[in-house]
Structures are given as structure tokens and as C-alpha cells.
User: Fold these one by one.
Assistant:
Number 1:
Amino acid sequence: MLHEMSIGGMLFSPLLVIAPLAFILTAATRLLLHYLGLRRYIWKEAWFDVGVFVCYLAAIVYLFGD
């Protein structure tokens, strides 16, 4: 299980670190698909990006969780 991080006596959610990491991976995937010319095959790009973000977020939580 992921635990809160204490910084200066304040507790922060682990999503504070995990969500930006998932966003960076999503952006890298988006750039890679654009570079390879595969973005044109995606029907709804915004929904695809949200789905990829959620998948990366779930994978990171699964990998770093206990």
C-alpha cells in the first residue's frame, strides 16, 4: 500500500509524485505515436490520451504499491 509522504510536517498523497510521472509517460507516448504517424488512426484523441494516462497511473500504482 502506498503511504503518505511527510515534508516539513505536512502529509502529502503519493499521487503527488505518481500523477506527474504518469503524465510524462503519456506525453512521451503521444509524441512517439505522432512521430511514427500512428495518431491518424485514433478516432477520439482526447479519450485515447485519458485512457493511456489512466493505464499508466494504474500500472505505476501496481508496481510501486506493496
Note: The radius of gyration is 15 Å.
Number 2:
Amino acid sequence: MADTPKIRVPKTAKKGEIIEIKTLMPHIMESGQRKDKDGKIIPRKIINKFVAEFEGKPVFSATLEPAIAANPYLQFNAKVEASGTFKFSWTDDDGTVTTAESKIEVA
């Protein structure tokens, strides 16, 4: 797919705190509407789905369309009640799934 995703999740939080999570996936996000130097259409290749889970439970998801910019950046909030692991997945048009994880300690 692309390079390694970049994620920002606080290392610690208080029980019940709403935290901010930021993700950036390096990806060209080719819309399928541009042409190469020979006039041939460049095939569509985008990340079409993003999912964030905490300890196996969905927290946030998004369906992405061709109009989204290259290197999609997503920012969202989540309420944390206990320590655990966030898992993030990006699915490409060709079925490739890239994942990343980040742990958080809740006091």
C-alpha cells in the first residue's frame, strides 16, 4: 500500500476522559480520473475504508471517496474508561489492509 501510518494517541488519560486521536496514512489516493503522459487513464487506487477499534470494539469508522486528498489525515475523539489498545485499519481498493496499534494507560 504505502508507507507506515502515523498515529497520535495520548500515552495516558484519566478514566472517562475524552481524548483526541490523530492518524495520517501516506498514500497517493489516485482518483481514477487523471491521465498519464500518454493520455491513458491512471487506474483508481484509494484507501476506501478506515476503522478504529479499542479492545476489539469499534470507536470510529469512515468510508473514503476519490475526492479525498492524498495522505488522508483523520482526527477524532474517543472516551476511555480503561487501559487498552487502539487498533487502526486502512483498506485499499485492492483489498490490502494496513494496520497500526497504540496503547493507552488509564488511571
Note: The beta strands are 6-8, 12-13, 18-24, 47-54, 57-63, 73-79, 84-92, 97-106.
